[in-house]
From TrEMBL:
<keyword id="KW-0503">Monooxygenase</keyword>
<dbReference type="InterPro" id="IPR036661">
    <property type="entry name" value="Luciferase-like_sf"/>
</dbReference>
<dbReference type="InterPro" id="IPR051260">
    <property type="entry name" value="Diverse_substr_monoxygenases"/>
</dbReference>
<comment type="similarity">
    <text>Belongs to the NtaA/SnaA/DszA monooxygenase family.</text>
</comment>
<dbReference type="GO" id="GO:0016705">
    <property type="term" value="F:oxidoreductase activity, acting on paired donors, with incorporation or reduction of molecular oxygen"/>
</dbReference>
<dbReference type="GO" id="GO:0004497">
    <property type="term" value="F:monooxygenase activity"/>
</dbReference>
<feature type="domain" description="Luciferase-like">
    <location>
        <begin position="15"/>
        <end position="382"/>
    </location>
</feature>
<dbReference type="Pfam" id="PF00296">
    <property type="entry name" value="Bac_luciferase"/>
</dbReference>
<dbReference type="InterPro" id="IPR011251">
    <property type="entry name" value="Luciferase-like_dom"/>
</dbReference>
<keyword id="KW-0288">FMN</keyword>
<keyword id="KW-0285">Flavoprotein</keyword>
<dbReference type="InterPro" id="IPR016215">
    <property type="entry name" value="NTA_MOA"/>
</dbReference>
<protein>
    <submittedName>
        <fullName>Xenobiotic compound monooxygenase, DszA family</fullName>
    </submittedName>
</protein>
<keyword id="KW-0560">Oxidoreductase</keyword>
Length: 460
């Protein structure tokens, strides 16, 4: 996230050597992009949302005081600077379908796709907090399934703008004839739907990928059916490979039922490793991370994600959930956490939960040498059929450097990581899926420009 500290590591910015407090400077991002490019990382993912989490104690104060997931910049603005200093690494930017409009968002991503040379992706989210709704002019957040229904309608409009408005041979820029863009090959889309009515041409000529690579992370019934239709890559929040295996095989099957090649969906579970040069070095880093972790900010993050205010519980007493309507949901999180490695079945206090949230939450957090961490990832690759890992940082600097300098060489030695980008200097989709634009079996490809379209909707 483009804000102080790590996404899943509250409190670590207090270290004297920390640079995450400079996330309001371009240098932070250009340094990060260069490092990722050197490490042959496929993409940098920016999580994003509006406002922040203000459920804990009914306010944002805890998150503000802890400088955790607040004061965060708009990732759109960072990506061009990062692209300018790199050739290969790609960038996934989160944007919500609930508050943007398809026309505006299509233009923003076409712009990014041009400026990055096709190295951009969109993490499609629907937002889930009332405070985001209130900041954006609504009383409360729209219902969960309705948000996905709206997101589905949103996608139709952006596919039309990206895929069908400008024909592939509409860009002439012919200096001899003086013909710039062939108006006969650029049509207005005319969309009438439940949520959006849009009449207009894409404001931007076709970008290298046309549609950016589409990421998503839904886990509910409507979230997964959205993913099976639209997502090319999926973020998972799963605690162990067995759980991930089930989620992945269910989603691949749902995609196949939509006529898609199930292996063309790429899965990225989250990890937050702590990597040392020796086991002792890793242990020391872990102990330091525990000492700096902010469990109350972790709890506030948990409350934000779940909508359940845990501020009323004394920090060091086992939580008495009796009488709470959300007791089952909280118990389910405890059971999920207990299913992860090294977590005992003993009573959960708010501090224990907060510490867990402050150091990776539901993500696996292997601590060890590069070889020990690679063992864990290898198990996931072999058992759960994952395609890559979405890695969160604990410290800045530190975590990303350890990934690039220690972990990736180890994964390469094992043949689990490419020695170079598949298409150096290519687009994100070429490196991820071997194709520049949407695959033919993707729903969005049905919107591609067709010559017979020409007759239908010119003018205006
Ligand atoms: C790794 C990961 C990253 C996510 N990033 C964001 C984000 O940046 N912004 C956001 O609003 N939601 C984000 N989400 C939440 C998802 O979009 C989604 O709301 C959540 O997984 C719940 O799924 P559901 O809506 O299908 O119930 C993320 C989820 C995961 C697992």
């Amino acid at each position: 996230m483009a804000c102080v500290g790590g996404y899943m590591a509250s409190g670590q910015w207090k270290r004297p050597e920390d640079t995450s407090t400079t996330k309001d400077t371009i240098k932070y991002y250009t340094d990060l992009a260069r490092l990722a490019d050197r490490g042959k990382i496929s993409a940098i993912f920016f999580a994003d949302w509006f406002v922040g989490f203000d459920v804990y104690g009914g306010s944002l104060d805890t998150m503000l005081n802890a400088a955790h997931q607040v004061a965060h910049l708009d990732p759109y603005a960072l990506v061009s600077a990062m692209a300018a200093v790199t050739n290969n690494v790609s960038f996934a930017v989160t944007q919500s379908t609930t508050y943007s409009t398809p026309y505006v968002l299509a233009r923003q991503f076409s712009t990014l796709d041009h400026l990055t040379g096709g190295r951009c992706a969109w993490n499609i989210v629907t937002c889930f907090t009332d405070s985001s709704a209130q900041a954006l002019g609504h009383d409360k957040i729209m219902g969960h399934d309705e948000r996905y229904d709206m997101a589905d309608g949103f996608m139709d409009v952006v596919y039309k703008l990206w895929e069908s408005s400008w024909s592939p041979d509409s860009v002439e820029l012919d200096r001899t004839t003086g013909l710039g863009f062939d108006a006969q090959k650029i049509k207005k889309i005319e969309h009438r739907g439940k949520y959006f009515n849009v009449s207009g041409r894409s404001q931007v000529h076709p970008s290298p990928q046309r549609t950016p690579v589409l990421f998503q992370a839904g886990t509910s019934k409507s979230g997964t059916s959205f993913a099976a239709k639209h997502a090319e890559a999926i973020f998972l929040n799963t605690v162990n490979p067995q759980q991930a295996k089930k989620t992945i095989s269910d989603l691949r099957a749902a995609a196949a039922a939509n006529g898609r090649d199930p292996q063309s969906l790429k899965f990225f579970p989250c990890f937050m490793p702590i990597i040392g040069r020796t086991p002792e070095d890793a242990k020391e880093k872990h102990e330091r991370a525990i000492a700096n972790a902010d469990p109350v900010a972790g709890l506030a993050q948990f409350s934000g994600y779940t909508g359940i205010d845990l501020a009323k519980f004394p920090l060091d007493e086992p939580m008495d959930l009796s009488g709470m309507s959300q007791a089952m949901a909280i118990q389910a999180v405890f059971r999920a956490l207990e299913a992860s490695e090294g977590e005992e079945k003993r009573l959960w206090t708010p501090r224990r939960l907060g510490m867990r949230m402050a150091l990776g939450g539901l993500h696996p957090c292997p601590v060890g040498t590069a070889s020990q961490v690679a063992d864990v990832m290898q198990e996931w690759i072999e058992e759960a059929d994952i395609d890559g890992c979405n890695i969160s940082s604990v410290t800045n600097p530190g975590s990303w450097e350890d990934v690039v300098h220690l972990l990736i060489p180890e994964l390469q030695r094992r043949g689990l990581y490419w020695d170079d980008y598949k298409v150096p200097g290519g687009t994100f989709r070429e490196n991820l899926l071997g194709e520049k634009t949407l695959r033919d079996d993707h729903y969005g490809a049905t919107f591609r420009w067709k010559h017979e379209d020409k007759a239908v909707s010119f003018g205006g």
